[in-house]
């Protein structure tokens, strides 16, 4: 009778520790991908006027490694979805884009592995509102792309926002320890 309970307990412990013990590449994940982003989507010669949608103030609400992993996964999932669009600007480097998407995908999988099986957020009001804020932020980016007909200028806005997301990832990864 005790063996199944022990197995469940060990599985839960393993998934909890999977995010707390970072892999060697985790320390440089954000900065490595910022370099790839710079290669993939160079700054255009003519800057565009953008409406600045502030990145949600998520970091002050995150006090548990599991919250950090959940928020990081949501950010990367949305970023991956946007950068996977087929109608990216022609001047973006295809190989660098492939490398960036590959890195994002692998890290999303890593985060999903270290999250509990039910993938439920901690049942506090704050984290749920965080997820809503993050989803609203990315919806704004999608709307901006669509409103501006996926123009090079709109994609430059995406590049700037992707840079912001990757910078926040560095802090989130450290909070997963």
Automatic annotation (TrEMBL):
<keyword id="KW-0732">Signal</keyword>
<keyword id="KW-0202">Cytokine</keyword>
<dbReference type="GO" id="GO:0005615">
    <property type="term" value="C:extracellular space"/>
</dbReference>
<keyword id="KW-0964">Secreted</keyword>
<comment type="similarity">
    <text>Belongs to the alpha/beta interferon family.</text>
</comment>
<dbReference type="InterPro" id="IPR009079">
    <property type="entry name" value="4_helix_cytokine-like_core"/>
</dbReference>
<feature type="signal peptide">
    <location>
        <begin position="1"/>
        <end position="18"/>
    </location>
</feature>
<dbReference type="GO" id="GO:0051607">
    <property type="term" value="P:defense response to virus"/>
</dbReference>
<protein>
    <submittedName>
        <fullName>IFN protein</fullName>
    </submittedName>
</protein>
<dbReference type="InterPro" id="IPR000471">
    <property type="entry name" value="Interferon_alpha/beta/delta"/>
</dbReference>
<dbReference type="GO" id="GO:0005126">
    <property type="term" value="F:cytokine receptor binding"/>
</dbReference>
<dbReference type="Pfam" id="PF00143">
    <property type="entry name" value="Interferon"/>
</dbReference>
<dbReference type="GO" id="GO:0006955">
    <property type="term" value="P:immune response"/>
</dbReference>
<dbReference type="GO" id="GO:0005125">
    <property type="term" value="F:cytokine activity"/>
</dbReference>
<keyword id="KW-1015">Disulfide bond</keyword>
<keyword id="KW-0051">Antiviral defense</keyword>
<comment type="function">
    <text>Has antiviral activities.</text>
</comment>
């Amino acid at each position: 009778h005790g063996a199944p309970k022990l197995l469940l307990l060990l599985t839960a412990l393993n998934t909890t520790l999977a995010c707390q013990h970072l892999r060697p590449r985790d320390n440089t994940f954000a900065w490595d991908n910022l370099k790839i982003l710079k290669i993939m989507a160079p700054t255009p010669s003519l800057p565009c006027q953008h409406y600045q949608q502030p990145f949600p103030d998520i970091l002050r609400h995150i006090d548990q490694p599991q919250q950090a992993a959940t928020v990081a996964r949501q950010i990367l999932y949305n970023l991956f979805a946007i950068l996977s669009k087929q109608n990216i600007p022609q001047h973006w480097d295809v190989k660098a884009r492939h490398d960036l998407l590959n890195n994002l995908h692998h890290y999303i999988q890593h985060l999903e592995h270290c999250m509990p099986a039910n993938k439920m957020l901690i049942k506090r009001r704050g984290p749920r509102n965080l997820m809503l804020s993050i989803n609203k932020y990315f919806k704004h980016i999608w709307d901006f792309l669509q409103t501006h007909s996926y123009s090079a200028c709109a994609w430059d806005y995406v590049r700037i926002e992707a840079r912001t997301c990757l910078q926040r990832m560095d802090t989130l990864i450290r909070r997963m320890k």
